[in-house]
Design brief:
With 181 residues, this protein is an alpha/beta fold. It has one domain: Ribonuclease H-like superfamily/Ribonuclease H (Nucleotidyltransferase, domain 5, 2-Layer Sandwich), CATH 3.30.420. Helices cover 39% and strands 16% of the residues. It has 7 helices and 5 strands. The chain has a 5-stranded mixed beta sheet, sandwiched between helices. Helix 6 crosses helix 7. The protein is globular.
């Protein structure tokens, strides 16, 4: 199975404080139904910014300034009343991934989502629920087919909405690559 991961963070460093985790299952076989997202396995986990800072989650002023320029809907994650402790968020994400066995985790950038989440697990003395050789880079994939535009759904910079948009885009790319073969 393939999982598209998206994080919202308060830094761009590998030890960034995570404020939301979003993920959705999708298919990289080029045959998936792009209409099936209502039924796809997905998870959204808002994280308490203060708990994300414990054990070394970093916040940088440039990212905080960037957040200040985003929409009210996107910034809502920073004060989400349903936000949970980072340690519990990692447990929930692990339980989500463990349902599927071997999964490929796609993140937007070889050094961003997957790396930041893996480092959060390490800082919490836990093992990430996927092996490093199952890391995949959505940014590399989308640069292979720049002719295929992403169609955004929901709120830009909402972790789950971004994961859904990216997964749909990845499926369009895989379908185009399959038909060109």
């Amino acid at each position: 199975m393939d999982i598209m991961l998206d994080l919202e963070t308060l830094s761009t460093s590998p030890d960034a404080a995570i404020v939301a985790i979003g993920a959705i299952g999708f298919s990289s076989d080029g045959h998936a139904s792009l209409a099936a997202y209502d039924h796809a396995p997905k998870i959204y986990i808002p994280v308490s910014p203060s708990s994300a800072q414990r054990l070394g989650g970093e916040i940088d002023s440039r990212t905080v300034q960037w957040w200040a320029q985003q929409s009210d809907a996107a910034r809502a994650v920073l004060s989400d009343p349903d936000a949970i402790d980072m340690a519990y968020a990692l447990q929930l994400f692990s339980s989500f991934i463990d349902k599927f066995g071997d999964v490929k985790i796609w993140g937007n950038g070889a050094g961003f989502d997957n790396v930041i989440l893996r480092r959060a697990y390490e800082r919490h003395y836990c093992e990430a629920p996927w092996p490093p050789h199952f890391d995949r880079c959505y940014r590399t994939l989308k640069n292979l087919r720049t002719d295929i535009a992403i169609e955004r759904v929901g709120t830009l910079h909402n972790a789950l909405d971004d994961a859904i948009s990216q997964a749909r885009h990845a499926e369009h790319i895989f379908a185009a690559m399959r038909s060109a073969a």
